[in-house]
């Protein structure tokens, strides 16, 4: 019969490289009509990074996502970027984009100051306007200032910047150091059904509460979480590269390497935990990798809760679960007498 | 375009209109039907709002994906383009005695063959340059490339691979990471030790911590090797031009550092290489280093034609990086209330045949292994070892899913033994703002407690079983 169980797992995960420099550079060009172009050396690998970077540039310029066109991924034309790795794009490249946009803003404030009769540091960008802080009645359309900057003052609003997370090298003997500038946190809780006659595990639902600092785009965060959980289910229950005795893969194809499809996906209930990291762009950290970190742990704990067996090696295939049920619970568990 | 003879029959016996309506009469090549663009493209509200941050803005590439208009490398065809395929070793550990490419080169339609000896600097890797672009003297795992062919069709290239004869002298091999650590084990990269990187994180006094513990638990956990399985396999299109510049359209997720590696293997100045990162159909860490890029560049140079290479699904499995299998030994001491006093962890990572991103995976796994918990006495030691298997590298989580499986399974074991609710035992141990990590770092913006409570609330954990 099917037995239901639930399991919880939490985790922490760093953003960026371990100690090593992983800089990003960015260039923001404000066009003469107040729209903008962002140049970045990162690559869109399906996660929506370019949309998020566009939103960060737009936020810094007080314009909308649609107002920013993003040019990416060409070593001849875009500035260097460490790339789509280590959940670093929103945090590291995002900081570079924010700083580049602020450089462009400085030019626009210099130009707009005399036009509005105030000092440049009294100005802010909002709703496609440059306005006096705390006195929004006095404002100019961003496009008008950008045109004036380029065509009258001869100072096109272009900003470039780089950013690299500050770290402290780890002591080789003790590992003491500050390998990362920031971390994210998450919890996933899985509910499963385990068939105690076949060992088959079905994941019914997963509640996922993830921290990513400020969610620059909550829809894309949800997408990452759902995708990460799909990968986590494969790791937990199905996927495994097998080798013969000569070191050759036995199942290098999608017929014999079993992985989850949409039919294996549980109901996923996502929460984005309220959080703000002052070191990230507008409080953002990252979310790419951590989404698949706690899934397997939560599912394996749910299996234990359902049928009382602790599977200690992944994946928990039906064969393995059934063998463990037949062998009886708690066989490998070792509790030592306290010294 | 081929026109059926029926169309040429006189108009008096069959009208043109009838002929066109009959489906069998016109055989057109398969082309995507034209998409009529509206004069004004619909832009969703979410993309037009300010402030931009926090908006559920649709992706800028979403419309193209939805209409099937995204151009992946497989969709790109340049005039005169050739197709490349790579011959895989099929043996895990051997000395290459001889590579005979003459029969393949003689095949009609084969434009060039390339072996490892023709690559200017035949090694690369993000930490150690221990990986050949194409194996020349020695094969380190069964997925190693040993030769490449560029031909006018993909089918001819595949057939040509069969005609390449490689003579191997088998060498001893090791496949189990724990075996590979032994002094007596065959060396994967002689004379170097199979243990190619180690990492330690140590804080507090482990012995005193265990002595002060009310209960001590111990368990070994293991994880398997898995593939990233992106929808789009590794793909590259290379074009060498008459100025001696090469352009590579590629699925690389890290084009700046990829360009550095390509320049090194080709022994060329960086400014003569242009890498264009196309829209990638899934990366997950598997496309974070170069694979066939130098091979295609050199085949393009040899033939004076653009050369495209797209991995088969089989190559994606056997020759690209995978996730590290882990062997993890956990020993944890707790007090009567389930508060962790001491934790000792030993990690052995199966690095496969090459280092790739193993050093990074080792570092992250070692730092994260104790879990997001306040533990005063911690000792983690981690090793990554060579085996004659598919190399392991970057994959979503860099070792974190493996250690999370271990520390969270272990946590539930402890909770069950002490009769404490799994949520409760975590709340007693987790980091808070200002907690000190195992590497001595003061942590900020820590919300692991909030995430536990939020997920538990959403799940209905405290309401008990449904």
Please outline what is shown here:
With 339 residues, chain A is an alpha+beta fold. Helix content of chain A is 28%, strand content 24%.
Keywords for this entry:
heterodimer, A: alpha+beta, Aldehyde Oxidoreductase, domain 4, four-stranded mixed beta sheet, 24% strand, B: alpha+beta, Aldehyde Oxidoreductase, domain 3, five-stranded mixed beta sheet
CATH topology of the largest domain in chain B: Aldehyde Oxidoreductase, domain 4
Average pLDDT of chain A, rounded to a whole number, is: 96
Strand content of chain A: 15-25%
Number of domains of chain A: 2
Low-confidence stretches of chain A: none
Largest interface: A-B, 135 and 133 residues
**Secondary-structure element order of chain A, as H and E?**
EEEHEHEEEHEEEHEHHE
Q: How would you state the average pLDDT of chain B, rounded?
A: 93
Topology (elements, then pairings):
The complex is a heterodimer of chains A (339) and B (466).
Chain A: E1 2-14, E2 24-30, E3 36-40, H1 49-61, E4 68-72, H2 89-116, E5 123-126, E6 129-132, E7 135-141, H3 142-152, E8 158-163, E9 183-195, E10 201-210, H4 218-238, E11 267-272, H5 295-307, H6 318-327, E12 334-336
Parallel strand pairs in A: 3-4, 10-11
Antiparallel strand pairs in A: 1-9, 2-3, 2-8, 5-6, 6-7, 9-10
Chain B: E1 2-3, H1 16-21, E2 26-27, H2 62-66, E3 82-88, E4 94-100, H3 102-105, E5 110-115, E6 138-139, E7 145-151, H4 154-163, E8 165-170, H5 177-180, E9 195-203, H6 206-212, E10 215-222, E11 235-240, E12 246-250, H7 255-266, E13 273-277, H8 293-303, E14 307-310, H9 313-319, E15 326-334, E16 340-350, H10 358-368, E17 377-385, H11 400-418, H12 422-429, H13 448-459
Parallel strand pairs in B: 3-14, 12-13, 16-17
Antiparallel strand pairs in B: 1-2, 3-7, 4-6, 4-8, 5-7, 9-17, 10-15, 11-12, 11-14, 15-16
Helix pairs in contact in B: 10-11
